[in-house]
Amino acid sequence: MSQSIEVLNLRTQRDFQYVLKMETQMKGLKAKFRQIEDDRKTLMTKHFQELKEKMDELLPLIPVLEQYKTDAKLITQFKEEIRNLSAVLTGIQEEIGAYDYEELHQRVLSLETRLRDCMKKLIDSKNNKKKESKRKRKRQ
């Protein structure tokens, strides 16, 4: 029995030494975990701050991007209007293409002559009315 107690005592001492050794390792491991956790928090804070600074730097781009979107829409509208105008101009060109230059020139001269004649008649008519008006006043 004393031998059993002796063996038990030796085993207990060995286990106790093992537990002490493990306790030291556990404390070291716990310290490393704390350090890692602190480093992680520090890194997260640092990365968050860097990210926030980048966002602050990019913040002025928002109005520029909004203006860009507005300009892009306006350009799209202009393109559509240009397409419509091109179609109209093509139609006019086809219509004008039916006449040669000389014929168009003659038509323009004819229209100018008619316009001058109309203006002359208008002026003559106006002058005649003035003369009649003067005559009526003289009679009265």
UniProtKB/TrEMBL annotation:
Alphabetized UniProt keyword annotations: Coiled coil
Coiled coil ranges: 19-46, 75-121
Alphabetized Pfam families for the sequence: Noelin-1
Domain Noelin, first and last residues per copy: 1-50
Name of the featured protein: Olfactomedin 3
Originating organism: Propithecus coquereli
Gene behind this protein: OLFM3
